[in-house]
Amino acid sequence: MALTDEAIVKIKGMITSGELGPGDRLPKEADLAARLGLSRNSLREAVKALTLVNVLDVRHGDGTYVTSLDSAHLLDALNFMVDLHRDDSVLQFFEVRRLLEPGVAALAATRISPEQVTELRLLTSDLGPDASVEELVANDLRFHRAIAEATGNQVVCSLLDGISGATQRARIWRGVTQAGAVERTLAEHAAILDAIEIRDAEAARAWMTAHIAGVETWLRKAS
Q: The whole model's pTM is what?
């Protein structure tokens, strides 16, 4: 194991064991290196790596701290990776959405509150058939985000935030080139919400699968 990787594993072990928790300050570099049996250079490189993925926060003049370790903060690294994706990998992101979002819709059907249903109803009625493609895609992002929020699972929300952004351009292409895309999207949103509102998890799962697969199928034909 490379020395830097060893240092990362040892710091991770201190966190997973509970020795270091969210917001805790790491011991001074020299003390921590000696304690872990590492060179200061290896430790320094490990801290840099863990800072990049938002596990540690280096505050110059103050010290190095464990971050809050909340899911949204940690998954910023995923969002960064998604931003770098190439257009030829967008189908892979749709595949991930098709694996995840039907389950999210089913879970939302069991947990959604009346207030969240009302919010989603407002979103589905916010656009008409003459809406622009940009307005449709923005509304679609809010719709899927609201369903994720209805699960009460912040990890799900953070994951889908990153993945959905990667498919945004493809949805714009579809809206521009495919006749009836706006009307079809609005109808599918309404069907998904109808199933969620009556707490029919399996119907919500089926409608969400069809919704995601429709764009994915179009993209495969257009590629």
A: 0.69
